[in-house]
Amino acid sequence: MFEEERYADYTTLAMKLLDSETLPLQEKLVVFERLSEIYTGKNESLLKASQLIYDKHSKDFEVAKNHVLILIENQQTKKALEIARKAANANKENYHAWRLALNIASTYWDYAVLFEDAKKALEFFPTMPRLYFDAAKGAIYAKKLNEAIELLAAGELYILDDRQAGALYDMRKGEIYFAKKEYKKGIIAFESALNKAKNKSAVYSTYALELSKANIATEVAENLLSELKNPDQDRNYFLAHGYLSLHSKNYDFGISLLNEGVKATFNNAEIFDLLGDLYFRKGAIDKAIEAWEEAMVLESRNKNLSQKIKEKNIMLQSTIKSILIFIAIVTLASCGRSKDLHEENAIKLPKVKEELLISRLDSLSENRPDHFYTKLSSKYSDSKYNVSFKTSIRMRSDSALHALITFARIPIYNTMVTPDTLTMVDKRNNCYMKEGMEYLKTTFGVDFKHENIEELILGMPIAWDDEIAYNQVKDPYNYVISSTSKRRIRRQDSEDFIIRYFLSNDTRTLRKTIIDSPKDTTSITINYYGRELVNGFNIPTEGDIKVDTPNDELFIDFKYNKTSVNDPRVLYLAIPKRYDRCE
Predict the structure, then answer these.
(1) Which residues of 238-251 are buried (b: 16+ CB within 10 A; e: fewer)?
(2) In the beta sheet, which residues pair with residue 142?
(3) Mean pLDDT of 369-383
(4) What is the spatial distance between Cα 514 and Cα 496, in angstroms, rounded to a whole number?
(5) Is the pTM of this model over 0.70?
(6) What is d(CA 155, CA 157) in angstroms, rounded to the nearest whole number?
(7) CA torsion sign, 202 to 207 to 208 to 209?
(8) 3-class DSSP state for residue 246?
(9) Looking at per-residue confidence, does 279 or 299 come out higher?
(10) Among 471, 499, 443, 488, residue whose Cα is nearest residue 324
(11) Peptide bond into 231 cis (omega under 30)
(12) Is pLDDT of 161 > 90?
């Protein structure tokens, strides 16, 4: 505690000294060095101190270099590069100033800057082979591949007998030939680099990366990567593994390894970018967007990244819409396929009169709380997507239902459903939709009823109607009540839908609902796997819904958390003024 107070006092004094107009620069650098010993890594106090001294002495290279390094520590790499370039242009005959700017541009994949500044530096230092090497790298990504070859040819005049530099030049030639899709020449160049190099780690990882991106000789790439142990497992090592996993569709392995990579490497924006691609290919759109957004925070140089996030956000929005429609279809009992009436119970049950079972379901359909709250943890999957999300639900019986959907703890969709209106606020895209309930019927052919969602969530009999003549299905293993007779189910007569309600073995709760339609080939099954008594009401603890269609299988599960009954809560949904209608 005493040390912390001393540090705080020294920091306050240091800020005043660094802001001084009279204190000489060399003394300020001593003060800053002392601060650097107290604070390491990402730190606001050190960043502020660095900014203070830079604002007053920006033309001094040592000051600029210190500020650049602090900015990088604080993940402000674009600003760091901007200041490094200013320092290089202000100190044009200082090779170290150019080296600082070029190292940042190369490390963080600012290849257009690398190409431009390396060529500019060559005007002042034409005999430095490293500058030709950097300029060639920039030329590759500027699509000036022939110029890249010419730059290396010019630089080789100054390598002399430096075999390691020669190896790196051959490695760069390999990158150029792979960019030109002249893979045989590229492989020859990389093999030459391996023969010359004393320290082969950079060649191993770069060679493996080029092979994995091109998806050729993948066994060779794997062998090269196996040669690399800590601490030689650099960014290219993890990226190469990521591309191999992407091409082989071994997404789980790639995701696991890249998650290790973002912890093991410092400049990891591009690893997050590729990690997002793997999550997306796996179907986990929410995790893909989360990884890409982290890449954006880390200032990835992928110019297409923001567009990629935007497009996948739209896709995610479409997926959520599909989930909502999926739930609507289920709760409206509008489709299904006739299935075998005998379900999974293996033990014959005692006979119970049809009248008692119908009476029990009739009673369950009326046992609706005035207020309800829960948090649902869900996973949705189909042939394309695999999305995990959470939903906070507040309900006021027969009046309104409010749902807040979150991904990775970030609120994404805020929804209010009333008997007359469906309102959804999209927080990602700053837009909203507000439609009458006839919108779903017009758009999707679904005659939506607000009360059916309540019944689904509360584990009640969906669309129960005491005016329908229900029948008990003769099934010795289950207590089943159907909205039509067993004979007509098998004949698949012309009813719009058939609902079967499966009661628990003690007949006290609803265990399952199956919805069938003779008109199509889709089947819906709703399961409830557990119940708890909350304030006198038997509420589900978990369940799932499965929809089988001719073209796909859709599945969503849900687990209830922090459920409360008849504890009134405010239901409120505001649409920010700056939001427009969703397209």
Answers:
(1) bbbbbbbbbeeeeb
(2) none
(3) 90
(4) 14
(5) no
(6) 5
(7) positive
(8) helix
(9) 279
(10) 443
(11) yes
(12) no
Residue 68 corresponds to which tokens in the numbers above?
A: 């650049």
Question: Locate tokens 């600082």: which residue?
Answer: 100
In the block, tokens 């239901």 appear at: 571
Q: pLDDT tens digits for 528-537?
A: 999 999 999 9
Long-range contacts of 404-413 (CB under 8 A, 24+ apart): 405/320, 407/286, 407/289, 407/290, 407/316, 408/286, 408/287, 408/290, 412/316, 412/320, 413/320
**Domains located in the chain, CATH noted:** 351-581 (2.50.20.10)
CA–CA separation, 179 and 141 (whole Å)? 9
Position 487 confidence tier, pLDDT thresholds 50, 70, 90: very low
pLDDT class for 440, splitting at 50, 70, 90? low
Burial of 47 (0-12, 13-18, 19+ CB in 10 A): middle
For residue 411, say if its preceding peptide bond is cis, omega within 30 degrees of 0.
Answer: no
Q: Are the C-beta atoms of 288 and 312 separated by less than 8 Å?
A: yes
Q: Can you read off the two tokens belonging to residue 32?
A: 């800053």
Rounded Cα distance between 44 and 75, Å, is 12
In this prediction, residues 540-547 reach a mean pLDDT of 92
State the Cα–Cα distance between residues 549 and 432, nearest whole angstrom. 30
Q: Are 532 and 517 within 8 A, CB to CB?
A: no
Query: Does residue 210 contact residue 190 with C-beta atoms inside 8 Å?
Result: yes
Q: Is the Cα dihedral 78, 80, 81, 83 positive or negative?
A: positive
Q: How many CB atoms lie within 10 A of CB 551?
A: 9
Report CA 464 to chain centroid distance, whole Å: 40
Q: How far apart are CA 386 and CA 362, in angstroms?
A: 37
Task: Please tell me whether residue 439 adopts helix, strand or coil conformation.
Answer: helix
Distance CA 405, CA 434 (A): 17
417 and 454 Cβ atoms separated by less than 8 Å: no
